[in-house]
Amino acid sequence: MPRVLLILGASLLIGAVTAPDPGPPAWVEVDPNAIQNADQPMQIDVGGIPQGQVVTLQILQDCNSDHRPDLRGQGDCKNPLYVRNSSKAGVRNMVEDHLDFRALEKSGTSLPRNRALWLRASRPGSRQGVLTLFGLVDNPCTLWQATLEAFRLGACSQSGVPQALRRHRGPLGFEEKTFEVRRLDPAGDAPPVSIDG
Fold first, then answer.
1. Fewer beta carbons below 10 Å: N end or C end of the chain?
2. What string of DSSP letters covers the chain?
3. What are the beta bridge partners of residue 124?
4. Rounded to the nearest 5 degrees, what angle is found at the Cα of 22, between the Cα atoms of 16 and 24?
5. Closest Cα partner for 167 from 179, 155, 156?
6. What is the distance between the alpha carbons of residues 23 and 155, in angstroms, rounded to a whole number?
7. Short-list 27, 22, 63, CA closest to 46
């Protein structure tokens, strides 16, 4: 009898070890955009989720100043700042949910303001996830100054993006330039795509 239990235990262990990772969702988006108002709930859409499946939602911050989210905290820097499963399951290959920042504060969880934060969505049982950048900001320039080097010389406080481009890229002549567009993916390095004009 002990031999049968040993074989059964070994087969259960092998089955648990070889279970495939379901992989990450296809994408995650927040609405209205990366700049969130704490007084309004943030709409969350996660794509590529089978019917009836929930997703795990986490809010992360950068704990080591590398402009990327960290899955674990370091020292006084806590991560994740917030974690829960979606309140709704997948319908039509997508999960739709929302996050009420005021309700979160009333429950004792407050998120830092005017800092880059990331919403991470993952499937249950997966170590992979997709991220989107957002921030609870009073002044939109504050978030982008902390996140994008292009605004480092204070162009936000002057006349916005055209001024920033003039300071960092020379005169505006978009039709004569070729730009590299990169997908912002902290988990990987997407190849650049060249776009004329």
1. N
2. -HHHHHHHHHHHHHHHHTPPP----SEEEEES-SEE-TTSPEEEEEES--TT---EEEEEE-SSSSSS--SS-BTTB-S-SEEEE-SS--BTTEEEEEE-HHHHHHTT--PPBSS-EEEEEE-TT-S-EEEEEEEE-SSHHHHHHHH-GGGTTSGGGTTHHHHHHHHHH-S--GGG-EEEE----TTS-PPPEEEE-
3. none
4. 140
5. 155
6. 40
7. 27
Could you read off the pLDDT of 88-120 as tens digits, one per residue?
999 999 999 999 999 999 999 989 988 889 999
Strands 193-196 and 178-181, sheet pairing: antiparallel
Q: State residue 46's pLDDT score.
A: 96
Rounded distance, CA 49 to CA 130, Å?
12
What gap in Å lies between CA 43 and CA 87, rounded to an integer? 12
The predicted model scores a pTM of: 0.65
Residue 168 has pLDDT above 50, yes or no: no
The residue among 100 and 188 whose pLDDT is bigger is 100
Between CA 130 and CA 121 the distance in angstroms is 5
57 has which bridge partners? 84, 121
